[in-house]
Structure formats: structure tokens, C-alpha cells
Design goal:
heterodimer, A: MetI-like fold, 14 helices, 72% helix, disordered N terminus, B: two-stranded antiparallel sheet
Chain lengths: 318, 316
């Protein structure tokens, strides 16, 4: 084709430079399109996330009670001092820490174990993987609720099965009503629900390891255990750490499942910080106090997540 | 134990394969049993549901579903005998237990709310997310990394913590206990996921297609609509399903920001109680109907699950 269409050849030149400035002249400029596309999302997030967050910070310095008409009074750091010197709040943080620590530990152990087994690629492994994944997609609230049926001491199948294998009378213990068992009950249900999450991410990590590394190790006659410690584990670690990050945040702020399974009881043995926060905000209507607790929760999460992400990046570089 | 023939590591031995299969299947069966139990309880009669020892074999009935969807009143046997014979199967089920159906239960409204709020927020979040993801994927946006991190961080906020100011804001704006309010809220929560997932999907579409279209005289918007969107359809569908699942499952915001008008299923399920204490078959029937779509979606999504749960950070 001869040069009969100068516009086209100009456009081709523009495309070669990797920019489409020429063609864009016909419509909106690229910059306008970019902002037109991004702004609605940003505005929505500002209105529904950032504005409330700033409001919460402001409220945290007041004595406001949202159910009373009395105007908010500025109380400075009083709410923060109250919270940080309250032995009950520290007890709730300890309950939360117990919950987070044990669910994460069990999830890593079972999740990584399952991923290693599934990676043996036996026949039908993808079908069984899908079955295992189901619990994590369900509504945590509804899960908490239906486990109360399974945990019924008399009619529930859980106690019956435990009784069948251990010889204990099924009605002699209550997973939800017992002070000793309840903290483990929430760990058990959360582990049941979220182990598939850790498993799926570990599986992705295992599949990212190229075969030739193992082949080289076989040539060097490295034992399977040695291969696991010096190849598999280091290569899966960044994936595992990512899964732990998501799960740690998730269980730290867990509300739905616990609220419907034990609602913090018996006593306050399963009262995680989220439940305390909900009670302060929506049952005692201590709006200012609850806002301060919410701010403390944010700072803890973002601070811990920040440190963690640094550690994750360090591991990735190794 | 000497294995003389060298085998590539990617091929595990038949024995280790078989043992892994047994262990994984065992775990899967145990893990799925609670769900099967709930599904089975939905089809039990009240007596079978509270039998001791727990019944594995029982004659199935739809009582639980009838109780779930209707409000019934207890009547004497003589009274029912005098009534005109039942015209529908569900009336018959109720009358067999000396109950008369008085009308539909609130579950119908709750399911409807779940559907409206779920689909409304999904459509909005996917729409906004697709636009923003394209913007971040194709243009040099100043501070793009910071903005993207900001978008992600909004998802990290615990719902309970922002619920207080949102509650006050919604009261003030008249959005408390409205479907519109919940749609907007779930859209805001979902849009972060939508942007991150879709950016990943759109990044994978080669730029050359659009550039060719631009050369052919398309405007940016035309190229986006006619070239990028059709190629991103799978990604958009997967993202939409993730958003729908989130809205469908959400509990905390809905518990705190709605009461009688806009309440969805999750906060309502614990209140399916029925006549004379906890009606377990009705609770199980509600739970089963509520969870079933998620089970189907999970199976449909299985190839994209990894991306969805990690905000696109891990892809296969």
C-alpha cells in the first residue's frame, strides 16, 4: 500500500511509540478517561470508609452515647486510658490471642499437610479438593449457628461421636456451655472453616516449585526429609506467610461465627475483642468508648500487618 | 525398601499416592459430614431431629420446609376435621400435625432482601471495579500503588469497628434499615476486591488488541467497550460471583444497620424458632436453602478461587 492515508501511518507511528495519544484525540483524553474511571470508586470509598473512620477517631475523644440526646462532651484521652487500664479488656485480648494463635497453628499444620498430600496428584484429587474447599465459602454466621445444633449435648451428633469413640456419656459435657471447652470450640469451628484457605494457598506454593529442583536434589541423593526442609518448605514459606496474614487479621476481628456460636459465653470465656466492641457500641451505647476501642483495634491491625509485610518481603528476597 | 529404578520426582510412588488419597478422602468426608447432617436434618420430622441417639436413617418429610415458609396456628383435632379438606400438599403436611397455615412467614422477605441487596451491590461493585481496574491497568495514574493499597486497606477494616460511625451516618441520612443503604455499603466493601481481582484479569489481556483498535479509529471508550470488555468477561463473571457470595454471607453490618425492613437471611436464621422451642428441621431447612447456592457457586468458581481469596495476589 502506498502512502495514501497519512492519518493511518501517523497512527501506526503513534502505536509504535507505545502511546495512543493520536487516536485518543477523537474521544476523551486518556487522562480524562483514567480519572473518569477511577474517581467513582474513590469517592464511594471516601464516603463509606474514610469518612466514618475519621468520624470514629473524633468520637473516640468524646463521651457520646448515641442513644441519648445529650450532646457529646470532649473528654480527651479518658476513653483510651479507661480501656488500657481495664483488666476485663485485657482478658478479652487474651481470649482473642488464644483464639488467633491456636486456629493459625492448627490451620498451618493441617492445611500444609493436606496440601502436601493433594500434591501427590492421586486420581480424583481435584474433586476432593473442591469438596474440602466448601466450608470456607460459607457464611461464618450461618456456620456458627448450625454448629450449635451439632454441639447439642443430647441430640447433637458431635457429642455422640465423641462418646462413641471415648466411652464418655454424650450428655456429660457441653462444647458450648463449658468454661473449659468453649474457648476450644470456637478454635475447632474456625479451623474447620478456614483450613481449606491455608491449604489452597499452600497448594499454589507447592505447584510453583519447578520439578528440576527436585531432580537436581535426587541426583545429589538428598533424602526426602532433607528435600522437604531445604526445598519445599523455603519455597512454600512466602505463600504460607501470605495465608497466615489474611487468616490472622480475619480471626483477630472475628465476630460473626463466635457471636452466633457462643456469643462470648459462658461468662466471658469466648468474648473476643469484636464482641466486646459490639456490646459497648450497640448494647451499652457507649459510643465514645467503643470508638476508642475501634481505633485501638485498627492501629493494632495496621501496625502488626505492616511489620508482618516487611517480614514477608524479607523472606521473599531470601 | 530399595527402589532401583530412578523415577522423576514429579511422579510419586504408587504407594505414597494411595496413602495420600486415603488420608485426603478421609479428611474430606469428615469435613463435609456437618454439612450433610444439616442437609439431612432439613428433611427430618421434629421428633426425628431431636431423637437420641441421633438418627442416621429416617423417613424424609418436607415438614421443615413448610414450617420455614409459613406461619401456623395449633388447632384441635375436631376443629381441623370440620374444615374443608386441604387443597395443597403443604396444607396437608401442616394439618397432619394439627396445624393450620395462617400465612407466609418472614423468611420470604428475608430471602428477597438477600437477593435484592446481593445482586444490587454485586452489579454496582463489578461495574465500578471494572472501570477502576481498567484505569489502573492501562493508564499512568499518579500514586497508583498508593491508591491501590488504600483501596485494599479499606477491606481490612473490621466491620464492627466502622459500624458505629456508619450507623450514625445512616441514621442521619435516612439510610438506616434501607435496602439502598445496604447496597451502597456492600458495594463499598466489595469494590476493593473487584478492583484488585479485575486489575489482575485486565493486566493479562495484551495491550496490542486495544492499540490496534485505536489505530483503526476507535476512541478509548469504544476500544474499552468493544475490545477489552469481551475479553475480560470470564474475569468479570468470576469477580461478580465473589462479590455476590460476600454480600450473601455478610452478617455483622446487616445485624447492626437493619431491623425489620432490609434485614437479610444471615441475621434472621437464628430466629427461625417455631412453635414450642427450637424447630431444628425448620432451621436446618433455612440453612440448607441458604447455603446451597454457595455450594453451587464454589464448584463453578473452583478455578478462580485462589485468586478470589487472595485479592489476586496469588494466581496459578
Amino acid at each position: 500500500m502506498t502512502v495514501t492515508n497519512p492519518a493511518r501511518s501517523l497512527a501506526e507511528a503513534a502505536a509504535r511509540r507505545g502511546s495512543a495519544r493520536f487516536a485518543a484525540r477523537a474521544g476523551l483524553s486518556d487522562r480524562a478517561v483514567a480519572w473518569l474511571f477511577i474517581l467513582p470508586t474513590m469517592l464511594l470509598l471516601l464516603a463509606i470508609n474514610i469518612f466514618p473512620l475519621i468520624w470514629a477517631i473524633r468520637l473516640s475523644f468524646t463521651s457520646l452515647m448515641a442513644n441519648l440526646p445529650t450532646p457529646a462532651r470532649f473528654v480527651g484521652l479518658d476513653n483510651y486510658v479507661d480501656i488500657l487500664t481495664d483488666e476485663d479488656i485485657w482478658a478479652n485480648f487474651r481470649v482473642t490471642a488464644h483464639f488467633v494463635f491456636w486456629t493459625i497453628a492448627l490451620q498451618i499444620l493441617i492445611g500444609l499437610g493436606l496440601a502436601l498430600l493433594i500434591n501427590q496428584k492421586f486420581r480424583g484429587h481435584s474433586f476432593w479438593t473442591t469438596i474440602i474447599l466448601l466450608p470456607m465459602m460459607l457464611s461464618p454466621a450461618v456456620v456458627g449457628n448450625f454448629w450449635t445444633l451439632l454441639f447439642q449435648p443430647q441430640i447433637g451428633p458431635f457429642n455422640y461421636v465423641i462418646g462413641f469413640f471415648t466411652g464418655v456419656a454424650p450428655s456429660s459435657f457441653s462444647m458450648i456451655g463449658s468454661v473449659v471447652l468453649a474457648p476450644w470450640t470456637i478454635v475447632l469451628v474456625n479451623t474447620w472453616m478456614w483450613t481449606p484457605y491455608v491449604m489452597l494457598i499452600c497448594l499454589a506454593g507447592l505447584r510453583s516449585i519447578p520439578d528440576y529442583i527436585y531432580e537436581a536434589a535426587e541426583v545429589d541423593r538428598a533424602s526426602p526429609l532433607r528435600q522437604f526442609w531445604s526445598i519445599t518448605l523455603p519455597m512454600v514459606l512466602p505463600f504460607l506467610m501470605l495465608a497466615v496474614l489474611f487468616q490472622a487479621i480475619q480471626s483477630f476481628v472475628m465476630f460473626d461465627m463466635v457471636n452466633l456460636l457462643t456469643s462470648g459465653g459462658p461468662g466471658s470465656t469466648t468474648e473476643t475483642v469484636s464482641i466486646t466492641l459490639k456490646r459497648a457500641a450497640f448494647e451499652k451505647w457507649q459510643t465514645g468508648y467503643a470508638s476508642a476501642l475501634a481505633v485501638i483495634l485498627f492501629v493494632t491491625i495496621f501496625g502488626a500487618a505492616n511489620v508482618y509485610v516487611r517480614a514477608l518481603n524479607w523472606v521473599k528476597q531470601q | 525398601m530399595s527402589d532401583t529404578t530412578p523415577r522423576p520426582f514429579s511422579e510419586p510412588s504408587p504407594l505414597s499416592r494411595a496413602l495420600s488419597a486415603v488420608a485426603v478422602v478421609l479428611y474430606a468426608v469428615i469435613a463435609i459430614l456437618p454439612l450433610i447432617w444439616i442437609g439431612a436434618t432439613a428433611f427430618k420430622s421434629q421428633a426425628d431431629a431431636i431423637a437420641y441417639p441421633p438418627k442416621i436413617f429416617f423417613s424424609p418429610t418436607l415438614e421443615g420446609f413448610v414450617d420455614l415458609f409459613t406461619v401456623q396456628t395449633h388447632q384441635s383435632h375436631e376443629f381441623i376435621a370440620k374444615m374443608a379438606p386441604p387443597t395443597t400438599w403443604y396444607e396437608k403436611i401442616a394439618r397432619d400435625r394439627d396445624m393450620v397455615i395462617a400465612g407466609p412467614s418472614r423468611v420470604v422477605e428475608r430471602f428477597l432482601n438477600s437477593l435484592i441487596i446481593g445482586f444490587g451491590s454485586t452489579i454496582l461493585a463489578t461495574f465500578l471495579g471494572t472501570l477502576a481496574a481498567y484505569g489502573f491497568s492501562r493508564f499512568r495514574v499518579p500514586l497508583a500503588d498508593d491508591l491501590l493499597f488504600f483501596i485494599l486497606s479499606t477491606r481490612m477494616m473490621p466491620p464492627i469497628a466502622v459500624a458505629v460511625p456508619i450507623y450514625m451516618m445512616y441514621r442521619w441520612l435516612g439510610l438506616y434499615d434501607t435496602r439502598i443503604g445496604m447496597i451502597l455499603l456492600y458495594t463499598a466493601v466489595n469494590v476493593s476486591l473487584a478492583v484488585w481481582l479485575l486489575k489482575g484479569f485486565i493486566d493479562e489481556i495484551p495491550r496490542e488488541y486495544e492499540e490496534a483498535a485505536l489505530v483503526d479509529g476507535y476512541t478509548r471508550l469504544q476500544a474499552f467497550r468493544k475490545v477489552v470488555l469481551p475479553q475480560a468477561v470470564t474475569g468479570i463473571a468470576a469477580t461478580a460471583i465473589f462479590c455476590l457470595i460476600f454480600s450473601w454471607n455478610e452478617y455483622a453490618f446487616d445485624l447492626l444497620l437493619t431491623s425489620s425492613n432490609a434485614q437479610t437471611m444471615p441475621p434472621f436464621i437464628p430466629f427461625i424458632i417455631g412453635e414450642g422451642g427450637q424447630n431444628w428441621p425448620a432451621v436446618a431447612a433455612g440453612t440448607t436453602l441458604f447455603l446451597l447456592p454457595i455450594v453451587i457457586f464454589t464448584i463453578a468458581l473452583r478455578k478462580h478461587l485462589l485468586r478470589g481469596i487472595t485479592f489476586g495476589a496469588v494466581r496459578k
